[in-house]
């Protein structure tokens, strides 16, 4: 099974299939390796599902985080409305896997892709932030035997942000164009507040709130202009993994699944990182920690690397680098060490990662630290989205923080 760098050397497909019953010690697996902690994943799925129920919102988690069919199905089983994706290829994967509703959080302006996905238009919703995008979609779908008119959400952006129409008037022009298209259906309003703020300072939280107010104002303006279709449900969606509490507070009052107040409205978060959480960026900014809710997500992803050199008293080099571990939102954090002659990981105090090469990490340690060649260091990671894409399969352990983690399976990923 050489195609899986997470698998022990020399094992067969039959050996891997038996992992749930044989449950080998993690120490028998090669490094570098990234593990997924089953106990933490199960906790996070249940925690987010409960939070959404209490907040009165739905969720279409962003699937690009993991690109894992197994995790997507577990999110759907936990009550997710559907799965969000970012590219036409990801959308084709989701549709091919039978995901009942797929939200493409981007403009779909590639004519060939539009025609290819038209057969599943009854399960697909896309975004648009310009009248040109609407024109491209309309022309590409003209004469195509689509399953249904393609649902389109008008995306509102913000100054200095990412995509999205700038301002209500520009967004209304997009909505008007969608409503007039014979191939499209105006299905609601979308946005992403995470591009406008990157911390939990009062200034950032205020900016997020102002943006959400604008999003609601756009929805009301579309309704007042009579642009929404007379029947069907419309969607209001925002919410990454950093400010989903504010999004729920602002949008949940508009949710009306039965149409008792008039139009049927669904409110969807798109948080994706919660399923694994992390020990870096999301740990620092998650609303569950920030608001003191009494709940918490648990980090389910960890890196493990072997000390291959200690060339100086205060420096060790391990065999994991940029090709194995994420580094765009913070370097891996040394947490514990497993001695060469022991299966048990113990805390590693005073260590810090200072740099990554392709296949090495530089770890500064106290000069008197009991760290030697052959020992294995466990790292906390930051940003799951750039962790999963480095692995065709992750080793699933019962609990990464247990004294002796055991491998209970491999989780396949699909990144093309």
Our estimate of the beta-strand percent is 15-25%
What kind of sheet is the major sheet? Answer: 10 strands, mixed
Structural class: alpha/beta
- What shape does the CA trace take? elongated
The residue ranges in which pLDDT falls below 50 over 5 or more consecutive positions are none
Tell me how many strands there are. 18
Describe it:
This protein is α/β, with parallel strands linked by helices and 416 residues long. It contains 12 helices and 18 strands. The chain has helices at residues 13-17, 19-22, 38-55, 69-77, 88-96, 111-117, 131-141, 168-180, 202-224, 244-251, 281-285, 287-290; strands at residues 33-37, 58-59, 83-85, 102-107, 124-128, 150-156, 184-191, 234-237, 265-269, 301-312, 315-318, 333-338, 345-347, 352-356, 361-364, 376-380, 393-397, 407-412. Strands 1, 10, 11, 12, 13, 14, 15, 16, 17 and 18 form a 10-stranded mixed beta sheet that branches. An 8-stranded parallel beta sheet has the order 2-9-8-7-6-5-4-3, with helices on one face. Strand 10 (301-312) and strand 11 (315-318) form a beta hairpin. Helix 8 (168-180) runs parallel beside helix 9 and helix 9 (202-224) packs parallel to helix 10 (244-251). The radius of gyration is 23 Å and the shape is elongated. The mean pLDDT is 95.
């Amino acid at each position: 099974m050489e195609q899986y760098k997470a698998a022990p050397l020399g094992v067969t497909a039959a050996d891997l299939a038996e992992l749930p019953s044989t449950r080998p010690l993690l120490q028998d697996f090669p490094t570098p390796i990234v593990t997924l902690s089953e106990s933490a994943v199960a906790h996070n799925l249940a925690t987010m599902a409960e939070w959404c129920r209490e907040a009165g919102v739905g969720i279409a988690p962003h699937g690009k985080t993991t690109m894992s069919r197994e995790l997507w199905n577990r999110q759907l089983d936990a009550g997710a409305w559907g799965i969000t994706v970012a590219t036409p290829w990801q959308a084709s994967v989701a549709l091919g896997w039978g995901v009942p509703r797929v939200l493409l959080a981007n403009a779909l302006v590639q004519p060939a892709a539009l025609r290819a996905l038209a057969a599943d238009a009854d399960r697909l919703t896309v975004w648009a932030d310009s009248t040109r995008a609407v024109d491209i979609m309309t022309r590409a779908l003209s004469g195509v035997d689509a399953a249904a008119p393609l649902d389109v959400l008008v995306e509102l952006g913000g100054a200095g942000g990412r995509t999205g129409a700038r301002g209500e008037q520009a967004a209304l022009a997009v909505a008007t164009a969608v409503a007039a298209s014979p191939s499209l259906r105006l299905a609601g309003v979308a946005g992403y507040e995470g591009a406008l703020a990157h911390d939990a300072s009062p200034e950032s939280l205020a900016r997020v709130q102002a943006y959400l107010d604008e999003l609601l104002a756009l929805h009301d303006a579309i309704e007042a202009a009579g642009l929404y279709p007379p029947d069907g449900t419309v969607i209001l969606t925002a919410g990454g993994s950093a400010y989903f509490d504010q999004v729920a507070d602002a949008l949940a009052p508009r949710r009306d699944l039965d149409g008792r107040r008039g139009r049927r409205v669904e409110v969807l978060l798109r948080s994706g990182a919660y399923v694994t959480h992390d020990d870096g960026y999301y740990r620092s900014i998650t609303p569950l920690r920030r608001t003191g809710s009494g709940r918490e997500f648990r980090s389910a992803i960890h890196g493990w690397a072997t000390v291959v050199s200690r060339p100086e008293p205060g420096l060790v080099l391990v065999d994991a680098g940029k090709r194995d571990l994420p580094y765009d939102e913070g370097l891996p954090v040394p947490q514990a060490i497993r001695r060469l002659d022991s299966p048990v990981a113990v805390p590693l105090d005073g260590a810090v990662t200072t740099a990554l090469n392709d296949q090495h990490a530089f770890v500064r340690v106290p000069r008197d630290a009991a760290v030697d060649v052959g020992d294995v260091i466990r790292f906390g990671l930051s940003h799951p989205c750039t962790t999963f894409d480095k692995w065709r399969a992750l080793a699933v352990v019962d609990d990464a923080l247990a004294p002796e983690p055991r491998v209970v399976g491999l989780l396949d990923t699909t990144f093309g």
